[in-house]
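Entry for NAP complex. Fields follow.
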Amino acid sequence: MSRSEEESTSNLMKKKGLGWIEWLRGWFNVIYEMLFQRIMASHLENPMPLPPLPQDFTCIITGSTSGIGREIARQLAEAGAHVVMAVRNTKAAHELILKWQHDWSGKGLPLNIEVMELNLLSLDSVARFAEAWNARSGPLHVLINNAGIFSIGEPQKISKDGFEEHMQVNHLAPALLSVLLLPSLIRGSPSRIVNVNSIMHQVGFVDTEDMNVVTGKRKYTSLVGYSGSKLAQVMFSSVLHKRLPAEAGISVVCVSPGIVQTNVARDLPKIVQTGYRLIPYFIFSPEEGSRSALFAATDPQIPEYCEMLKSDEWPVGAFISQECRPTNPSEEAHNLETSSRVWEKTLEMIGLPSDTVEKLVEGQDVKCKYGSDDSHQD
Ligand SMILES: NC(=O)c1ccc[n+]([C@@H]2O[C@H](COP(=O)([O-])OP(=O)(O)OC[C@H]3O[C@@H](n4cnc5c(N)ncnc54)[C@H](OP(=O)(O)O)[C@@H]3O)[C@@H](O)[C@H]2O)c1
């Protein structure tokens, strides 16, 4: 068979969506988590007890002005870490710090928190953030990609970079941030990248030829946008995990926070939001929802677990459930061919060469399409 015949056969065989059994299983798992998360997580304390962290243990947390990220930032700072709130609303972050310092006074050393501006809807902003951070030449111990959007019921929006907004905020921008911060994460090794993902990835599907869901092959809904972006993040993380050599000392982990009462549902109709509040038993508080990310960021066994997955050549990277247990992401996340295409396509979309990770690990420079004016000239 000629190469073009092989390609067209492979195109014909390309999956157009989840099979109905996968789809039903995905929804079963989403509903199961919704109904039983509190029972499944009943062994966990709230707040999650954290070990005392060294003052030079540096954690960057995106989207830390609201919901789960706000809890993650406060608790890591109270445990002693140096916390960097990477946010688009810097005024809100400064106000939160004042409040936290006030509430904390008399309980220990003042909290070590700073604010840096980061807007995930602009890949230039992401690249500039990473340039500014890497220029400090210091270590980074934990990057928590927490910020996310779920614009329920809203029409499709395309960012000024030209990408569907769920895909950009939930997957492309965190992917760019993670890759560009690798030099600092290597300096901070053993270090971790923690991606706040979602059980909703289980009903997601990624068409790598239509990551923005604009060709009309699939009808766009916010659910398609959100779940696809979360699945793309799991797939990209699995490939990143495999590409990073053990010597780099970086663990890549996705977590599910559970179903959590936050601002993520701000676009839901008022009646549904009221319903949310009427069933508090089923829904986690942001403090409860922060436990899986805090666990992934601090538990001493995480690096060992990630290394074990790597040496066993397991097809996916680490995924921690809302009850802080290792779990398996969806069946589709195990699709190695799609994961590898998601990896290539993502690097292309975020303007990085395909050998970026290898070059950064070897200490070489990499030019990104986004960021400082110099890099735009390439
Ligand atoms: N809540 C749930 O039930 C649930 C379930 C599964 C997964 N998750 C995931 O958990 C993560 C945190 O969400 P949450 O529930 O805590 O929601 P949230 O309260 O809405 O918080 C989201 C955070 O992301 C920030 N953000 C949004 N767009 C941004 C952008 N363009 N640039 C920079 N920051 C941006 C928001 O900043 P602003 O305040 O400036 O908008 C906010 O701080 C998300 O990744 C979400 O997908 C949540």
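NOTE: Confidence is low (pLDDT under 50) at residues 374-378.
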